[in-house]
Amino acid sequence: MMDVQSLIVRGQRHIKHLDYRKSLECFEAADAHAPENPQVKFGLAWSYVGLGDHDRGIGAYKEALRLRPGWPPALVGLGQALTYAGEYEKALHWFGQARRRASDAPPVYPGEVEALRRLGREDDARGRVRDAINRGRCDAGLAAEYCDLCAGAGRFSEGITAASAVLGRGDLAPAQRIALLFALGRLLEAKGDIEGAFARFREANSLYPPRLFSRQAHSREIDDIIEVFGGDSAARLPRSPERHDRLVFIVGMPRSGTSLVEQILASHPEVYGAGELPHLLNIARSLPDRVGAAHPYPRCIGAITPETAREAAAEYVSLLPVPSGPFARVTDKMPHNFLHVGLIGLLFPGARLVHCVRDALDTCLSCYTTIMSPSHAYSTDLEDLGHVYRDYKRLMDHWTAVAPTPMVHVRYEDLVTTPEETVRSLLDGLGLAWDDRCLRHHTLERPVLTPSADQVRSPIYRTSVGRWRRFEHHLRPLIKSLGL
Fold first, then answer.
1. Dihedrals φ, ψ of 111, to 5°?
2. Contact 150, 123 (CB under 8 A)
3. How do residues 359-398 score in pLDDT, each as one tens digit?
4. Residue 70 to residue 73: CA distance in whole angstroms
5. Across the strands, what pairs with 332?
6. 354 CB-near residues (< 8 Å, 6+ apart)
7. Which domains does the chain have, with CATH numbers?
8. Please, how many CA atoms are within 13 Å of residue 127, restricted to the half-sphere of its CB?
9. Which phi and psi angles does 97 have, rounded to 5°?
10. Which of 113, 140, 456, 469 is buried most deeply by CB count within 10 Å?
């Protein structure tokens, strides 16, 4: 007898790791043995939506609700799937059902706010957040939404009052307090209170738990990569015998425009945007075991064989959450894959690279004023940020000189000032025909799970170019660290 519960647990684990193909396999196997199990239908729905098949996801969520009427997680999931499909009014109906069943059903409030914003109902969206605040259901993301909504509407005092009131509560977890401080900082910046804004950004960064970051260790890592993948030695390394012409890796520093570039490319009918995928990093970490080497990556790369390269590449491709369709290109926009450009060349002959470049000060300031994951331990300190940017620049200069993989460089400033010319050049570099939809990227309905979500869902704007000048006298440690 098939153990359905074990399949459900395995499927949920695959979803957690963004491996929607494997999660779908688990839930399809479970569904064959337990077609009336609402948890199985829920897992199927989540997997379908993760693969971009919104219609089948919507159908599976409805099946879950048929089997378990009024189930809040399924109501919220259905609302989210409908939002991704552009059915905002229908989404609001199901979010409303979830809120009436259980007002704390996560993430009912964020889902409603997102749908209302997509419909242009900014006042209603603010009202939903106020309701969440009054009910004590305002999480970190929702607080940020509220401040951004108030900033966009010019309701600075309203947002500042609400954010300050929430900050005054004694029950906030550190992560919530950090998120609120960042949101309040953005609101104060929009109001023109630069001193107040930077004070909030500085306080938010000071509240992070101590993060282990060593400038010396980071530079040694870059030194190792450059040495291992030097021009002559890299040319002699074995490669996978199979070509991967569909793959496009979008790399660069965080906050350099990678999300915007992927959204533009995903607007092309022949491109699927797979988002930020951890798979290449996981392969790099596992490489010593794969090749039987005693040294960690990248020192183990000399032991690679064409067969181990082929197997690692096949594993990566099997994990891609790509729905069926005529996609000539599939993008992976994990920014820090810039560390692995040499590995990309070995595993994926025929793949292409897009390197997103942005002014160093604007990039580092954006990292400093944005919630970053713990993997970016350097982002809370201006001097660390400058050091990391210099190492990144040093490595990218190396790849530009020696990497065999074709690379298209996209400057953020060019993208926002001369978008059509820049996008045409980008598409040409990827072997894609021009399509006007790439200039209407903000109309594309797809989940964007990065801090740049608002930007990619808006027409291109230029206001973030030269942002650092507003804070120049606060950025002296960064400017000195960058050597400017």
1. -65, -45
2. no
3. 999 999 999 999 888 788 899 999 999 999 999 999 999 9
4. 9
5. 249
6. 248, 249, 250, 251, 261, 265, 331, 407, 408, 410, 426, 429, 430
7. 219-482 (3.40.50.300)
8. 5
9. -60, -45
10. 113
